[in-house]
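Narrative of activities, Objective 1.

The group set out to show that a structural description can be obtained from nothing but a protein's sequence at a throughput compatible with the screening campaign. Below is one input-output pair from the validation batch, recorded exactly as produced.
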Amino acid sequence: MKFIKDLLLFEIQTTGQDPDKHSILQLSAVLLDKDNLLEKNNFNTYIKVSYLDSVLAEHAKMLNTDFEILRKSPKLYDAVKKMHAKFGADLLLTTYSFNNLLFLKNAFKKAALNFNYDQHIVQLWTLGYIYTLNYGLKKMPTLNTLIDYFKLKQKHPFDAMETVRLEAEIFRKIIKEV
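Output recorded for this entry:
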């Protein structure tokens, strides 16, 4: 299957589930070619949400990353601006969870940037749900369910870059069989 535009599959790690109360700690994305769904480019950054060492240490532990890496990470505005400059907006946004989209929209708003992406979003959870129904899997298609179903391995579940690459592999497998 070929798509009209390249797809930007993105994943985030946050301090919680509410886009209005919680912050993005890591923003990762892979640009998939519209014709073959292979990775053309990628983006990965941690985001510093505090200048307090105690908060940064807590976030570094949560993300299983080095404190110094997080301390030197950009603020949200710079991270979102850099991602947008790298990929532009002439693509289809793709994500596993609708909540990720809400966080990203909120990040653009906080960064005072226009969210000028196509209004059509490819949601991997929905594709996974339809796919698993057709193949008789009687479980809700969590990301872990799909990782297990396709016999993939996840070493670091709180690493958005690893997660987004696993999601890209799941997406390719589903599209190939459709």
